[in-house]
Specification:
With about 140 residues, the protein is an all-alpha fold. About 55% of the residues lie in helices and about 0% in strands. It is elongated.
Length: about 140
Amino acid sequence: MFKGINRIVALTVAAILVVAIASAAYISSSSQPSDVKLAASGDPGAKLRITLDPQNFQGTVREAYEVAEKDPALLAQLHCYCGCDVTDGHKNLLDCFRDTHGSTCAICCGEARDAESMASRGMPIEQIRDALRARYAHGS
């Protein structure tokens, strides 16, 4: 009698695991923003793209998207002073480069490029924040 129950329990647990894994995979793939793509299609070692492709832009806009692509952790720690936190729901400067907003905003692009320049000189994040606030917060 216990053998039959053990088999039923084992099959039930296995079925639940299969459904849970399949659901997690579906939710994970369907909940990603449309701009999240593999950097190199078909390459299993490719990293996920969390910003739009800089190659879609030119000049200083491309440079800003390159900064976002190269150092997303830096921009994620910074506030954007153009007002997109209110108008677009952005939480940080990196969000500006997840969509096309950054491509039409000189403040976003300026902040990204300035932040990268300061970080490359070894400036601590607190000083970068202060410098960006002093330079760009006048309209906020």
